[in-house]
Design a protein that fits this description.
The protein has 377 residues and is of the alpha/beta class. Helix content is 53%, strand content 11%. Helix 1 crosses helix 3, helix 5 packs antiparallel against helix 6 and helix 6 runs antiparallel to helix 7. It is elongated.
Length: 377
């Protein structure tokens, strides 16, 4: 004889809140399954690490449709940042024709600028919707962002792609998709910072010039200028600064004032070689100055690497990517990620049917409307 379960208790052994909390602790806060096992043991609730993984894997299946929709939404962004960090996967299948030996976690951050309901303008000082995506495997960031852009609507204008000048951050894009390449000014500046002790006068001049540009950008953000207003502001106040810096670097090399093979010479040549992409902010209203936003996002993957050291399998890496994408997107949009993960578990079927209504920024409204409809009926 099987006893009847109390009213309100489902057939599943573990509630949706348990699955959401395990995912939050592991992929949001960096608490390892084994450490969580010890914590649960001390609380008198045995929960082996292997069981935690099975619960997290099942929860990932229920959230997969939301993750797919998140990728589609990210492809429609106005500005896309991307970068790589190394990641170890113990059992990672490699095609016979692939000679790569490394594994990476790519971060892609998509930004759609918010628009004022009164003017329709985009306040540069107020960031709009942000979406963070993570992809772990043998592929580099450029290949992963190309896959994301395959889902971009054809009628949308070319997005700005912000990355550093590494060749791994760009790739062959889908047919019909064009991008506006924007390189990170902070990476160029960093090369002068590293050689400051050897070339103090020259490096100080470069950093003061770039400091003026960043100051102008801060003024535009503080004044909540629209993207077009910010562009005009930079053209009026930053163009002359950048032209002066470019002329100085040209003089240093053409007149042999700097040895090309020295640290200063290499830093100058890097800036000159990528000058067009480094100065896109003087020609495009949406172009940011640097790529620091995706570097901050990658700290979520670095936290996992620091604590867990590796993913065991490729499937484990995909589960981690899914939860880190959902959790970090929630954080950037001011949404409590635990509540969102619980909602995805409880309403998995409805989210699968209408994934666009189950995004972090609108799922509460969707649940409220569903509740009102059921009450009215």
């Amino acid at each position: 004889f099987t006893a009847q379960a109390p009213e309100g208790v489902g057939e599943e052994k573990y509630d949706a809140t348990a699955a959401a909390m395990i995912a939050q602790m592991k992929y949001g806060s960096g608490v390892l399954f084994y450490r969580l096992e010890q914590l649960e043991k001390n609380l008198g609730i045995p929960l082996p690490a292997a069981t935690q993984w099975e619960i997290a894997k099942g929860a990932a299946e229920k959230a997969r449709s939301a993750h797919e929709e998140l990728i589609r939404e990210a492809a429609q962004g106005e500005v896309l940042h991307n970068d790589d960090t190394s990641m170890r996967v113990l059992h990672l299948a490699r095609p016979l024709d692939d000679q790569r030996t490394g594994a990476f976690t790519s971060g892609v951050v998509s930004i759609a600028k918010s628009r004022s309901p009164r003017t329709g303008l985009c306040p540069w000082g107020e960031e709009g919707r942000r979406i963070a995506l993570f992809f772990t495997g043998r592929r580099h960031a450029g290949e992963n962002i190309a896959d994301v852009l395959q889902r971009r609507a054809a009628e949308l204008p070319a997005p700005v792609q912000m990355c550093d000048a590494s060749s791994s951050n760009t790739s062959a894009y889908p047919e019909g998709v064009k991008i506006l390449l924007d390189n990170c000014l902070a990476h160029g500046r960093r090369q002068f910072v590293e050689i400051m002790a050897n070339f103090p006068t020259e490096c100080r001049f470069v950093m003061e010039q770039l400091g003026s540009v960043y100051h102008n950008d801060a003024l535009a953000r503080r004044g909540k200028m629209s993207a077009d207003e910010r562009l005009r502001f930079h053209q009026e106040h930053s163009r002359a600064v950048m032209e002066s810096l470019h002329a100085w670097m040209k003089t240093q090399m053409d007149e042999h004032l700097t040895e090309p093979n020295s640290g200063l010479g290499q830093a100058i040549q890097y800036m000159r070689r990528h000058w067009s992409a480094l100065t896109l902010f003087l020609r495009q209203p949406r172009a940011p100055l640097d790529n620091t936003i995706v570097e901050r996002a990658l700290k979520k993957a670095i936290l996992h690497r620091k604590n867990a050291l590796y993913f065991k399998t490729e499937n484990g890496a995909h589960v981690g990517d899914l939860f880190m994408s959902l959790i970090h997107t929630c954080e950037w949009n001011g949404v409590a990620s635990l509540g969102y993960l619980i909602a995805l578990q409880k309403h998995a079927r409805k989210v699968a049917e209408h994934p666009a209504a189950g995004m972090p920024w609108n799922y509460r409204d969707t649940l409220a409307q569903a509740e009102q409809s059921s009450v009215s009926l």
